[in-house]
From TrEMBL:
GO terms for molecular function: deacetylase activity; hydrolase activity. GO terms for cellular component: nucleus. Keywords: Hydrolase, Nucleus. Residues 25-321 form the Histone deacetylase domain. It is found in: Nucleus. This is Polyamine deacetylase HDAC10 isoform X8. Residues 365-386 are annotated as: Disordered. It comes from the Eukaryota. One of its GO terms (biological process) is epigenetic regulation of gene expression. Coiled coil: none annotated. The keyword Hydrolase applies. InterPro entries: HDACs, His_deacetylse_dom, His_deacetylse_dom_sf, Ureohydrolase_dom_sf. Pfam families: Hist_deacetyl.
Length: 525
């Protein structure tokens, strides 16, 4: 299993043929700089290198209208003047005689990457492409984008490989409104985008880029927008966004494939984004995504206009995909107030749709009486009395939630291990807490009275050890524990029951041992 790198030199052919200050940043050197840096770092050679193919017109038709595809095909034969005139029909777009070929290669590269990952040829991968895709719409080019590479890849993965749920993570600094429109009513594709927004005063200036755009009809809750209202967002802000918004929702969604609209204009030095995140941050973001979908992560280049920052960030993503450890993030790692406000506003907007966002002691937008336990809460009439009440409730809890996100000390990351057999002389790292004690005998016995199968001595000791570990976790002494037990499933069941009855939200217990029978937790959800 390897990391695929999909590329074709011919994608450097398209370039701006006239003066246009808005478009001149999207140039061929973006690709050559990134590829050269991958070569210098010895990274290209560690990847499975695949030459991009052109997407067929049928494949483009998965997302785009036949008329639009024909119009784009026609650009190959236009004069410079005609190309410039057609470009003027769209927002922030330029055409070149090679654009149609490049754009088909860009979409084809994304499809090849998906093929490689879904057939098992590769574990994960990156497609380095131009033109980018995430602004492109069914019948419109937009923001340097001609065909929506990632959206086409998502539909293709569903049609060709039978994948059901796909997560699209758009970490480009611009809102991929094209992807949002294509999937806005589709619950099979979860679209997450963060973007420079500045309360609507940044391109593409859309009301629907704000956090309250959550999708339409059956797709409600499957569009997740995180607008940044200030420039200068850095590593701590990006990590907080992943940890407090994207990952909870993504775990609950449980995707079978992760596609990344990997733009690097969200990195430090980029003239478009004006953000502060360092290239190392993208290694961490990539690593975090690899816990989803069995590691099936396909990243496709979008923006990124600072050649040095772009190339370094691309290297960091490829290193993380290859499994190299991520360099530490330096600095105090404290999110900015404005970032926390944005994070809290998305959490509030999405809370009705995702139980993983319900916070203990507060349900930001809806009280429990209006929010049914099923996935879809009953809709609240816009502007109605419930809506007004919810708004008031939101602002009331907002500041306390902000304080909690900001100030609440997280328990130390510390692991305890409890071994039932003293013979198991394991050499443990020094920072691991070795737990010799067992839980009070009455506690264990009380449970064992109800479960006769566990009253044999070894299982009984194991249960005591595990309960003791659990106490350590619930007290905040340690954050996780490992117990070796001869009856893993039964003890695991007790631990989970205990954890749930304590209202625990952060219990990670691994029981190593024979699975005598699968834990029966169906009744507890
Ligand atoms: C793919 C991408 C940005 C367009 C900016 C226009 N497009 N001002 O980053
Ligand atoms: Zn961008």
């Amino acid at each position: 299993m390897r990391t695929a790198l999909v590329y074709h030199e011919e994608m450097t052919a398209a370039r701006l043929l006239w003066d246009d200050p808005e478009c001149e940043i999207e140039r061929p050197e973006r690709l050559t700089a990134a590829v050269e840096r991958l070569q210098q770092g010895g990274l290209e050679q560690r990847c499975l290198q695949l030459a991009a193919r052109e997407a067929s017109e049928a494949e483009l038709g998965l997302v785009h209208s036949p008329e639009y595809v024909s119009l784009m095909r026609g650009t190959q034969a236009l004069s410079t003047e005609e190309l410039q005139a057609l470009s003027g029909q769209y927002d922030a777009v330029y055409f070149h005689p090679s654009t149609f070929h490049c754009a088909r290669l860009a979409a084809g590269a994304a499809l090849q990457l998906v093929d490689a990952v879904l057939t098992g040829t590769a574990h994960n991968g990156l497609a380095l492409v131009r033109p980018p895709g995430h602004h492109s719409q069914r019948a419109a080019a937009n923001g340097f984008c001609v065909f929506n590479n990632v959206a086409i890849a998502a539909r293709y993965a569903q049609k060709r490989h039978g994948v059901h749920r796909i997560l699209i993570v758009d970490w480009d600094v611009h809102h991929g409104q094209g992807i949002q429109y294509i999937f806005e009513d589709d619950p099979s594709v979860l679209y997450f985008s963060w973007h420079r927004y500045e309360h609507g005063r940044f391109w593409p200036y859309l009301r629907e880029s704000d956090a309250d755009a959550v999708g339409l009809g059956p797709g409600r809750g499957f569009t997740v927008n995180l607008p940044w209202n200030q420039v200068g967002m850095g590593n701590a802000d990006y990590m907080a966004a992943f940890l407090h918004v994207l990952l909870p929702v993504a775990f609950e969604f449980d995707p079978e494939l992760v596609l990344v609209s990997a733009g690097f204009d969200s990195a430090i030095g980029d003239p478009e984004g004006q953000m502060q995140a360092t290239p190392e941050c993208f290694a961490h973001l990539t690593q975090l995504l690899q816990v989803l979908a069995g590691g099936r992560v396909c990243a496709v280049l979008e923006g990124g206009y600072h050649l040095e920052s772009l190339s370094q960030s691309v290297c960091m993503v490829v290193k993380a995909l290859l499994g190299d450890p991520a360099p530490p993030l330096l600095g105090p790692m404290v999110p900015q107030h404005s970032a926390l406000e944005s994070i809290q506003s998305v959490r509030a907007a999405q809370a009705p749709h995702w139980t993983s966002l319900w916070q203990q002691g507060s349900t930001p937008t809806l009280s429990l009486s209006t929010c049914s336990p099923e996935r879809r809460p009953s809709p609240v009439s816009p502007g109605g009395p419930k809506c007004k009440a919810a708004e008031a409730q939101t602002s009331a809890v907002l500041s306390s939630l902000l304080d909690r996100l900001h100030l609440c000390a997280t328990p130390p990351v510390r692991t305890a291990i409890a071994l039932t057999a003293p013979a198991a002389a394991m050499v443990l790292p020094p920072d691991i807490l070795r737990q010799e004690e067992s839980a009070p005998r009455e506690e264990t016995q009380a449970w064992a009275r109800l479960h006769e199968a566990l009253t044999q001595d070894t299982a009984f000791t194991a249960l005591g050890k595990v309960l003791h570990l659990l106490n350590g976790i619930l007290d905040g002494q340690v954050s996780s524990g490992i117990a070796t037990t001869p009856a893993a499933a039964s003890t695991l069941e007790v631990v989970l029951r205990q954890g749930l009855s304590h209202g625990a939200q952060r219990v990670f217990c691994v029981a190593l041992g024979q699975l005598d029978r699968p834990p029966d937790l169906a009744n507890d959800g």
